[in-house]
Design brief:
By secondary structure, the chain is an alpha+beta fold. It is built from seven helices and nine strands; from the N terminus they run αββααββαβαβαββαβ. It has a nine-stranded mixed beta sheet, with helices on both faces. One of its GO terms (cellular component) is cytoplasm.
């Protein structure tokens, strides 16, 4: 089976209403359909590039290219995990987690997108909680990082609600304009002190070496 050679295919993270998993080809097609239907209001791009402003077919193709590019470049010292997010069996978006030299630094950077039709219902907060659980409880991370443009109030609210601390400002040149981005950082101790929904992880043990991770110490230990 393909999962014998790429055990990430068996990874599952579940919250009370969501399942996050590496997408199969069929999953990826459905997620691309969500992106094609729209991610944000016109003129309010929350990303470093303008891929979500492109025509529907190009948005869908970008989802495929990005996923395949990350798979092809994967190594334990530099990886990017893309998890398709499902609610009641239907795809709603993608949650990403990146790690460079994770075995040394123990840090992950998260990012995500959610179909516009599914926004405003707390799904973004729940999927971020899920990937934080994977990072800290699953991989034993020391820190989780996030970064959000200063004019993206929904994403800023998620980071603050989940207990991140501000970690400075980065300025980016986007479409010929300077845009400030707020950095956030959460330590393992801060994460352990927060209230969280019930979250479970399945299929992680065979994947640990792919992340450059060892079996983590128990939460609270």
């Amino acid at each position: 089976m393909l999962s014998d050679h790429w055990p990430l295919l068996g990874l599952r993270v579940r919250t009370p209403r969501l399942e996050l998993r590496p997408p199969t080809e069929n999953d990826l097609a459905m997620v691309a359909d969500v992106a094609a239907r729209g991610i944000h209001e016109p003129g309010r791009n929350p990303f470093l590039s303008s891929w979500a402003d492109r025509p529907p077919a190009e948005r869908a193709q970008e989802i495929l290219r990005r996923h395949w590019r990350h798979l092809g470049a994967w190594s334990p010292s530099d990886w990017a995990l893309g998890l398709a997010v499902f609610e009641s069996g239907r795809p709603v978006g993608m949650q990403h987690m990146h790690g460079k030299e994770f075995a040394v630094l123990g840090e992950v950077l998260t990012g995500s997108w959610l179909g516009r039709e599914f926004q405003g219902r707390g799904i973004g907060t729940e999927m971020r909680s899920a990937v934080l659980h994977l990072a800290f409880a699953g991989l034993g991370a020391a820190y989780a990082l996030s970064e959000t443009f200063a004019d993206n109030p929904a994403a800023l609210a998620i980071s603050r609600k989940l207990g991140y601390r501000t970690d400075g400002i980065t300025r980016y040149a986007v479409d010929g304009h300077a845009r400030p981005s707020q950095r956030f950082r959460m330590s393992r101790a801060q994460w352990e002190a927060t209230d969280r929904p019930q979250i479970t992880i399945a299929g992680l043990d065979p994947c640990l070496a792919m992340f450059g991770a060892e079996r983590p110490r128990p939460v609270g230990g």
